[in-house]
Amino acid sequence: MKALIGVLVIVALLFAVGGNYVSAKNQMVAKNETVKAAWSQVDVVLQRRADLIPNLVETVKGFAKQEQTVYGDIAKARSTLLSAPSPSDKIAANRQLDGALGRLLAIVENYPQLRSNENFLRLQDELAGTENRIAVERKRYNDALQDYNTFIGIFPNSIWANMAGFKRNDAYFAGSEGSRQVPKVNFSGVQQTPASPPPAAH
User: For the segment 36-48, what is each residue's pLDDT rounded down to a tens digit?
Assistant: First the structure.
């Protein structure tokens, strides 16, 4: 009788452990898919910004043809971003693109006629809106990633995660200095008035 009770207890424990494992694994799958879905939205807005950049650069070139180094840096960073195979690679490439864009927008300050160009103002507004959208989707992605990492790190989930092949994902998308600055750039739609010449000497 005692042997039977012992067997039943072992079977019950096995069912409980197995049930906990299956439940935890299902949640890991779901949370991992949430991370992937959140990243796909980040990817969409990064692509949207990448699509705006060529027109923005061409508009600036119309007023500042000599800034070839900056244009080259932007083209290289954009190409790297579009061909990046993983979120970590895209995040790194995006950081380089942010820096190059920041230098481009700094150049604009030296060209009053460009700052009042309608096409440039429209592109700048679209870029700023896209940057804001990137910030929103970046937060959703980071939140989903943190939730996933926290879940698989808690005992006994950490054991089940190791058994099921789920690993910690540290590809967090931190906002770079360049991306924080871009929406803050203020381009006046009014062309600056040239300074009056000094009075002629008598």
Answer: 999 999 999 999 9
